[in-house]
From TrEMBL:
The keyword Nucleotide-binding does not apply. The gene is MGAT5B. It is a single-pass type II membrane protein. It comes from Nothobranchius furzeri. GO terms for molecular function: alpha-1,6-mannosylglycoprotein 6-beta-N-acetylglucosaminyltransferase activity. This is alpha-1,6-mannosyl-glycoprotein 6-beta-N-acetylglucosaminyltransferase. The chain crosses the membrane at residues 22-41. Residues 163-750 form the Glycosyltransferase family 18 catalytic domain.
């Protein structure tokens, strides 16, 4: 090492006299690599515990003898590098021996595989020098329109998170482009990285053998993983145990349905963010005091579904635990499930792997950070720049997101017969566990209800009966789940007060043979007029307490009336007492339905593979008898429908959902694609926007366009009838089912769906 140091001094003196810009660059690269290596080694051999530095893992794995062997090799390598740096200081840009000498330096490093990964950026720099010109100019590629903006963002904010440095970002444009093309997906792959870049997540997965997922019916391992110490966790574990047999039965059914189909086993990191101490954990203290349980119901069911499907779970219940997980391990997980309550997504999580559990949904206009900021959609939630389908909701109210859901207990035939025989025709249970839900404004319709029915409540109290609860109400206090279920099996009516919104309780009541009566909202509640929705990343209008129950279940199981209209309310109560209903549970809220849906997402949704822009002219077209290519329409009218479908003679690009499910419609002015598709008996499918964002779709719909522009706006693609102007979408993250404008009619990519499984098209399994 003394010799190496002497050589270094000689080299520095020589450099001071003879350096040219290119030589400065080369020696700078060598010096940077040397410092980087020495720093990493310092982290290796001084760290006291696993995880002290990204390089500690290697030191911990190697034994003492192996570590000394590595040090000897490093010592040899440093001497070689110093000598090569002395040689490289004499290089000139026009020298014909540049490439050979640089290759010699690259070969010197590659002789030591133990540290080769630590020089991944160095390899990139060598590749840049090989041509004598920089290959790190920011590309202007129509397939990656966000690339220049992302590079600008990285230039100003790459130091905001240490994860960027872990992936090799050092402030240079080269490192930005490497990161944005290999870790993220915003820039095109760099051709000069083909041989020298470290393996990406995708190549690592391609090389590693896939393991087949096998259905599990034993939940003991999952129960141990969930842990203990909080009442919220105890609630979740009780729920998992109570539904264990139903999950096992559902797994056997789905296994038979899928046959011998191969299912990849995935590694899934689940961070239950809303229960962390860092988030305040407002849920746990209220579990036994009438607090909201919907989130815990959903998370318990998500964990169970992933476990039963046979995937490899890691569960995190604290931010410290999440941050403590090795950054290298993060790259192994193909799903990282988070709570929407997180305000920052750590860059080391590889955004394409993230799934966010989001009860009320995030619309694209709120998700796109720059667009939301410029156009007034910025809130305290959202703006993560994810593909909107990475957000997963409790109900299918936001087609831009993926519908995750939860499950309700399914009754067997014996239980259904018992309910039918023991229903009390004049018994009502009120949906409201907290005394605050019973405050003023409910006296009028409660008096009408009391006139016909015996009213029961389950309002929490400690010592004294809550004064908000009327004297005629028989209050049982907060009931355990099995006792509440017995109460619902006797009652004829389950009545909502208008809050909470979209909870699981109405579905449980309907599944136990109750009729759910809920208030109609006039005007509809939204972020514009209601404090509860203000600040949430959605402009959705809610017309009733439980829109899913109203739209997807409806009469006779669900009745939605104006509580302020005494005559309408009175008539509804009389009708309820006359009719008889059977217990009903939509298939998508059964254990089997949820397993089917989650299975389809895991096996088919891959946001780490960039979707190339759809170019119709690249399609394979049929040929005529003379051999010339026949140009036919891309979209053709469907029989007995106003919608267009994919032309059967056109080869459909690979997509999920498949293009056989596509139904192309035009909305009315001021109508969103959510409404347009729903009114036609379909559902909006955001994955299909890229196939209709073109002139061929406008031509198929016979839209007259004098001007066709490409813009960034969340209502596009759309057209104005009055002005005869048409607009196509330039920003894929802003493809939006929810967007609407009174000036435009929108092109809507609708699709069909399976009966009682709106998340999946008919051919999606």
């Amino acid at each position: 090492m003394i010799t190496g140091s002497t050589d270094g001094k000689i080299m520095v003196r020589r450099c001071l006299v003879t350096f040219k810009p290119f030589r400065i660059f080369v020696v700078g690269v060598g010096f940077f690599s040397l410092c980087f290596l020495m720093t990493s080694l310092g982290g290796q051999f001084s760290a006291k515990r696993l995880g002290d530095s990204p390089f500690t893992i290697r030191a911990e794995v190697l034994g003492g003898v192996e570590s000394r062997g590595v040090l000897r090799k490093i010592s040899d390598m440093l001497e070689v590098i110093l000598k090569r740096m002395d040689t490289l200081s004499k290089l000139d840009n026009s020298s014909t021996t540049d490439v050979r000498r640089l290759d010699e330096l690259s070969l010197a490093i590659s002789r030591y595989p133990e540290v080769k990964d630590d020089f991944k950026l160095f390899y990139g720099f060598i590749s840049v020098v090989r041509d004598g010109t920089s290959r790190c100019e920011v590309p202007r590629d129509s397939r990656f329109p966000e690339c220049p903006g992302k590079v600008d963002w990285m230039r100003s904010r790459w130091t905001s998170d240490p994860c960027y440095a872990f992936y090799g970002v050092d402030g240079s444009d080269c490192s930005f482009l490497i990161y944005l093309s290999e870790v993220e997906w915003f820039c095109p792959p760099l051709t000069w990285r083909n041989r020298t870049s470290p393996p990406t997540q995708q190549t690592q997965q391609a090389k590693s053998p896939n393991r087949q997922a096998a259905f599990r019916t034993d939940l003991s391992v999952l129960l141990e993983q969930v842990g203990s110490g909080k009442e919220s966790l105890s609630f979740m574990k009780r729920r998992i145990r109570r539904l264990a047999q139903q999950w096992a039965t559902a797994a056997n059914r789905l296994d038979l349905k899928l046959g011998q189909r191969w299912r990849d086993q995935k590694k899934i990191l689940v961070h239950v963010g809303f229960l962390t101490e860092e988030s305040g954990d407002v849920f746990s203290p209220k579990v036994l005091k009438g607090g909201p349980l919907g989130e815990m119901v959903q998370w318990a069911d998500i964990l169970t579904a992933l476990h039963v499907l046979g995937h490899n779970l890691k569960i995190s219940m604290s931010v410290k635990e999440l941050q403590g997980t090795s950054l290298i391990l993060y790259r192994m997980y193909v799903w990282v499930m988070l709570c929407v309550g997180l305000t920052v997504v750590p860059c080391c999580l590889s955004r394409c792997h993230i799934r966010v559990i989001d009860t009320f949904g995030t619309e694209p206009a709120y998700n796109h950070e720059e667009y939301a900021t410029l156009h007034g959609y910025r809130t305290n939630w959202g703006y993560w720049n994810l593909i909107p389908r990475q957000y997963m909701t409790m109900f299918p109210h936001t087609p831009d997101n993926s519908f995750m859901g939860f499950v309700s207990e399914e009754l067997n035939e014996t239980e259904k017969r018992s309910i039918s025989q023991n229903k009390v025709n004049n018994m009502a249970v009120v949906y409201g566990k907290e005394a605050s839900m019973w405050k003023q404004g409910k006296e009028s319709f409660m008096e009408i209800l009391h006139r016909y029915m015996e009213v029961h409540g389950t309002v929490y109290y400690e010592t004294q009966r809550p004064p908000e609860v009327p004297p005629f109400v028989k209050n049982h206090g907060l009931l355990p789940q099995h006792e509440l279920q017995q109460l619902l099996r006797k009652a004829k009516l389950f009545i909502g007060f208008g809050f909470p919104y979209e909870g699981p309780a109405p579905l449980e009541a309907i599944a136990n043979g109750c009729i759910f009566l809920q208030p109609k909202f006039q005007p509809p509640h939204s972020s514009l007029n209601h404090d509860f929705f203000r600040g949430k990343p959605t402009s959705r209008e809610v017309f009733s307490q439980h829109p899913y129950a109203e739209q997807y279940i409806g009469r006779p199981h669900v009745m939605t009336v104006d509580y302020n209209n005494s005559f309408e309310f009175d008539s509804a109560i009389q009708e309820i007492m006359k009719i008889k209903v059977e217990p009903y549970l939509p298939y998508e809220y059964t254990c089997e339905g949820m397993l089917e849906r989650v299975h389809a997402y895991i096996q088919n949704q891959d946001f780490c593979v960039p979707e190339p822009p759809f170019i119709p002219t690249n399609l394979s077209l049929p040929r005529s008898a003379s051999g010339s290519r026949m140009l036919g329409p891309l979209f053709v009218p469907l029989p007995n429908s106003t919608a267009l479908g994919w032309a059967p003679n056109m080869m459909a690009p690979a997509a999920w959902p498949p293009l056989s499910s596509l139904r192309l419609l035009v909305s009315q002015e001021g109508q969103s694609c959510v409404e347009a598709c729903h009114s036609a008996g379909f559902v909006c499918e955001p994955a299909h926007f890229r196939f209709i964002n073109n002139k061929e779709a406008l031509r198929g719909l016979e839209v007259q366009c004098e001007v066709v522009d490409s813009e960034i706006n969340h209502v596009l693609p759309a057209f104005s009838v009055m002005r005869r102007e048409c607009g196509l979408q330039r920003e894929p993250l802003l493809f939006s089912c929810a967007g609407y404008s009174p000036k435009y009619r929108r092109l809507c990519p609708c699709r069909d769906f399976r009966p009682e499984q709106v998340a999946l098209c008919r051919d999606c399994l």
